[in-house]
Amino acid sequence: MGWWKQPWLVPAEMSxxxxxxxxxxxxxxRLGVVVSTGNVIAFVDALGCVGLEDRSGVxxxxxxxxxxxPEQHAAYEQAFAAVWLQRELIRMTSEIEPVVLALDDxxxxxxxxGEEDAETEDDERRTVSVRxxxxxxxxxxxxxxxxxxxxxxxxxxxxELRLGGALRRSHRLTRSRRRTRHPDLRRTVHKSLRxxxxxxxxxxLAPSHRPRxxxxxxxxxxxxxxxxxxxxxxxxxxxxxxxxxxxxALGTRLTRxxxxxxxxxxxxxxxxxxxxxxxxSGGTRLGEVLRQFNDEWGIxxxxxxxxxxxxxxxxxxxxxxxxxxxxxxxxxxxxRVVWVNPLKxxxxxxxxxxxxxAALPFVDxxxxxxxxxxxxxxxxxxxxx
Length: 385
What we know:
This protein folds into three domains: 3-83; 169-210, no CATH class; 212-383, Rossmann fold (3-Layer(aba) Sandwich).
């Protein structure tokens, strides 16, 4: 016998409606619903009006008198099924309204001819437009599979990326609320003027922090042709979004793109960058171009203490030993070296290419670079302290 039918829950001298109301209230209390005596009396009065045979009337009478909060509806459904329907599911009868689902992709469908008179049954149907956003799809989609329209949409999403950059300690001092070993004589004297020259409240200075320089080296060879367009757009966003960002193109030669990418017009910036790169979609000599970068820019100061990001698939036609030597030189002066490889997402990928294998021992972070989501991960890696 179920606990909702146990005889000691209700007195014997009660009527049938009163006994059922008390048993129902006890069941609700077991399920955590607070039911007062006044609620039970109101439920008994309602049962006297609707009767015990009308299950729909009983259901809504109890719902109106015993339930006080929306979160109690689930417990009420369970208790009603247990007491009044012997644990059967409640099936509320309602008219089934035909619903037509229409996928809305922000493009109006073409108007078919000869369907203007077919409005007899369609007028009685409710059309629900199901809209979807391509944002989440584009975030994880490979750049190599983008259509021109998707790339235009991705450019808008990529413009929202921000390349923060890790902070480093600066030699410049700034005001501090804590006691340090650097007294601020100017503020101390200024405060003492209010106290007749007595330096009671002393001020101090502390070293400040400034963002590290970020150096982006993007491979524009033929093997990277499917990704160079999107990655160059990322370089433009990084250069325009914050200061202390340098951008270079890697191919058979080294090309500095920082000045070309400083324009806030994306089309003008990308056109100027493409015009300045003479070896676009050509071969790759990573060892030679890294040697040129180290000799002319990196070792002299641009890469010292900076976060250096190399965006390349690692395919190299040059000497792998030379690439490893130049990566070792770069790693000694840089704060962190990050390698972004669009092919890393491929199932079963292994860095077996001779260029990638030679460079990997001198890489601090090896991440993917095939989608918007991977570029967001790159921004987080660059900003990591």
